[in-house]
Specification:
Length: 48
């Protein structure tokens, strides 16, 4: 779980892309359907 949070924080800081975050979620066996809305929401906020 800590790895997912770290990846999430890295994404917010702009250190990773949506694609990398999705790949990361797949490699950590996270449910992408649950993670994707969070990534999309942060992506929209980051691009505003």
């Amino acid at each position: 779980m800590r790895q997912i949070i770290q990846a999430d924080q890295a994404f917010v800081r702009g250190e990773t892309t949506v694609e990398q975050a999705l790949k990361y979620s797949l490699t950590t066996h996270t449910n992408v359907k649950l993670l994707s809305p969070l990534i999309n929401q942060k992506w929209m906020i980051a691009r505003q």
